[in-house]
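Subject: sequence -> structure tokens, single chain

Hey, anyone have a minute? Need the predicted structure for the following. Not urgent.
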Amino acid sequence: MTKANDLTQGKVTQLVLKFYFPMLLTNMLQQMYNIVDTVIVGKGIGDNALAAVGNMSSLTFLIFGFAMGLANGFSVIIAQYFGAKDYANLRRSVASSIVLSGVIGLVLTTVSVVFLHPTLVLLQTDSVIMHDGLVYGYLIFGGLITTIAYNLCSCILRALGDSKTPFIAIIVSTIVNIALDIFTIYVLKAGVAGAAIATLTAQAISVLICYSKLKKLSILALEKEDFRGNSAIYGVLFKNGLPMAFMNSITAIGCMVVQYFVNGLGVMYTTAYSACSKFINLFMQPATTAGYVMSAFTSQNYGAKRFDRIREGLRVCLAIAAVSYVLLGSIMFFFPSQLSKLILSGDETIAIAATYLPICGAFLFSVDFLFVFRSGCQGLAKPAIPMISGILEMAMRIGVIALFIPTLGFRATAYAEAAAWLGALALNMTAFGYSMHKNTPESPVRGFAKRLASSKR
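Reply:
Had a minute. Here:
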């Protein structure tokens, strides 16, 4: 069990925080790189290039989010086997995850490359940014297997309680990525192609770092028989992975519809929306990380049937999300223009972005708490709930923006986000509470079931 971190034993708060901070730094580095990358592209190539790359965000989330959802779903099963100390099935689930990820990666690569152009046309992509969007998209989607490999390796490590190795990998890859960005864009004048090549190269390095750690874990000494087709393991992995993958993709479809309406307003709005999305993704990271911690912590303790620890872990993760909201939501609410100026250069695009950020800043608490409760549902082996909430998010986004963009204009995109967050939070919070009551021996739900069974006898 060399260097794997058992989250079913020890003081909950200490374990959560020890696991949380390396992962937070990992996610913040990734997002900070995205901000720096945006600055380099915007300042080094121009606002149109920034709009082209930003216009791809909802589409990349559709594809990458599906792959990431699968990896997260697989890691929940791996963490549950680890928590239950079932190392034989742990190895089989890891081996099966590798096989499934490889096959699905090839399919996603083919589909995304073939349908890239018609999808950009469908999104009302302006002809001014179409060429750069295609160049960037073909390269990023062509190297999709690298992204999938990193997601799987890092998710497996987190499932085993290791948040330090992905942190080291991101430190190295971020340095490489920024250096290559500067070199390819400013020296080679490679444009958006240079940004894409830099990203893929850095991700390949992060894969090697994570894989080298996995090879050293004694409980993951995989043998040929672990890779033999096991329908039961495949079934369990798909049962948990596919709903989470579809959740991300369904959410992405809602974001693509929002992108469609934004693109219809003009290139300046596309640029402003791209910049705002970068900041929201960055400011979500403390709570997103708390969600990842909640998923791994809940999964391991669910496998060990330690529901008391899950409840305590929830309190710690919610406290982290609340502090994050107070600090970062306030920055978005009170300093929108100052934030916008960090990325954007045109006065009009800065003014447009400054109408969006305060609204999302005010409602940031809803998505912060959503990450925690949704991850808790996943760890409790309830993957269908997050998927249903993804459908609800999509419906809320599309409904709000379609209804209010004629009167509210660009601000309708912010209200669409807020509505989606609030609806999904209500569903996941209710489902998590019900599941915990149902699985707690002294809960009213279980007590009622026992009394009903006794009366029938």
